[in-house]
Amino acid sequence: MNSMTGYAFTEYQDETVSLSVEIKGYNNRFLDVFIGTPPFIASLEPEFREYLSRRFRRGKIELNIRLKEQDSAVTVRVNHQAARSYGEAIAGLAASLGLDERPGLGLILGMEGVLEIEKTRDDERYRRLIIPVLETAAGIFEAERSREGKHTEGDILSHISRFEAALERVVSLAPVLEDTIKENLRCRFAELLGDKIDENRILAETAVLLMKYTISEEISRLGAHLAEFRAEVARNPSPGKKLDFLSQEMNREVNTIGSKTPNQEVSRAVVEMKELLENIREQLRNIE
Fold first, then answer.
1. 237 — phi, psi (to 5°)?
2. Any idea what DSSP says for residue 64?
């Protein structure tokens, strides 16, 4: 079980480059990868996205890569047409003002678009530099998510154990509920009929009420959901969605038990189970 939140930061530096990779993780219903890179390595973003998508299954992941080259090769081109246009425009302005001045080279070179500077791109070189650092950062990020996930898993299973204990109390009270229904019916018949109680009628009415108020099916389904919950935790490294679904189903069964039984002990157990499920679902929002 892994958490969706985490953080990792890794740096690499030599005489030619300075590189840093930062990964942040947040809760999210699905996998959502955001990548920030310098423009000159933007062509590698799909490869970084695919790598993270293979390694992680759920959560919002932000990857930020910063790369600075100490001595990068560049190509400089002069846009002669732009330079001439600037020169003519400036000379025309001087003439219209009655000034005997001609624009200097320094002024024209400083105008936008006169010098076109293109940084030499070597995608393969950048890939070789970045991928090992990215893998290291992803490993740290994964370990952080795993560490936090293990802690959350222990807490969730502790709540499940308390839920099972509360359910056992309900199971132990099920026969008492049946006896309570029978006794209530007997008292009502005694009030209406006095000593002329028809035992067969009481048994028939009891059977009808037991069909309506019995909680054996809900108890059975809760037991199955709990077994599946623990099995999913054990076998699936990314169980968040399935566990959330099972928690919803368990909450539905608990609500039904609460609506069927007026017994105070059962009601207290129902309240406890609902609180535990609410806490579990809150924690599951952070699980991959």
1. -70, -15
2. E
